Amino acid sequence: MEYKQSSTEYDLMKNSIALAAAAAVSLVCAQPLMAQTQTATTPAAGGGFGHHAMHAGFSHFGMLLKSANLTTAQQEQVRQILEANKAQAKSLFQQLRAVREQIATKLLATSVTAADLAPLQQRLTHIQQLVDQDMIDKALAIRNILTPDQVAHLAQVHQQLQGLHAQLQNLMGPGSDEMAEPSN
């Protein structure tokens, strides 16, 4: 006896596939938005890093840097470091957004394979590496203007923050880290 699928089952299956595709697209598109909004208001050195600190990891560095009690001269140096290559960093984020949108479009296509997405994934990885390198270069440049006492203080604050993070994980239970922090 042959099973014939009802139109209701077909509609349910079609809606489930559409929902799964929409969820995948939202995950791809939400990550850059989270990275930008998370860091756009990062305070540093008595002020805000603003648009300059769009890197998700850099926001943590900015919060940590705020505790360094920078001098006015150091604050100005930090501002100059963050202003350098601003247009290039903005371009990289626009490229990330465009590639993620292309991935989202392909995921919503009638059919898509890993081979269809491979070139886009490679491009995304390359751009992300450039963004990460820019972040590291800026962090090193900022670290180089700090005094040894400020670096030691930041190391102590960082260690305290790690302890607080561990306490939070213990309170929230296993798997809480994966839910709170988006992966790259």
Compact overview of the structure:
By secondary structure, this protein is mostly helical.
What's the arrangement of secondary structure elements?
Blueprint: H1 7-39, E1 43-44, E2 47-48, H2 56-66, H3 72-83, H4 86-107, H5 114-143, H6 148-172, H7 176-180
Antiparallel strand pairs: 1-2
Helix pairs in contact: 1-2, 1-4, 4-5
Features:
single chain, 184 residues, mainly alpha, two-stranded antiparallel ribbon, 2 strands, 75% helix
Task: Characterise this structure.
It is a single chain. With 184 residues, the chain is mainly α. It has helices at 7-39, 56-66, 72-83, 86-107, 114-143, 148-172, 176-180, and strands at residues 43-44, 47-48. It has one domain (7-180). The chain has a two-stranded antiparallel ribbon. A hairpin with a 2-residue loop joins strand 1 and strand 2. The termini are far apart. Mean pLDDT is 74; it is low at 12-56.
Task: Report the helical percentage.
Answer: over 70%
Query: Which structural class is indicated by helix and strand composition?
Result: mainly alpha
Question: What number is the mean pLDDT?
Answer: 74
Number of helices: 7
Radius of gyration: 22 Å
| Number of structural units classed as domains | 1
Annotation, overall tally of beta strands? 2
The shape, in one word, is flat
Cα distance spanning the termini: 49 Å
Q: What is the strand content?
A: under 5%
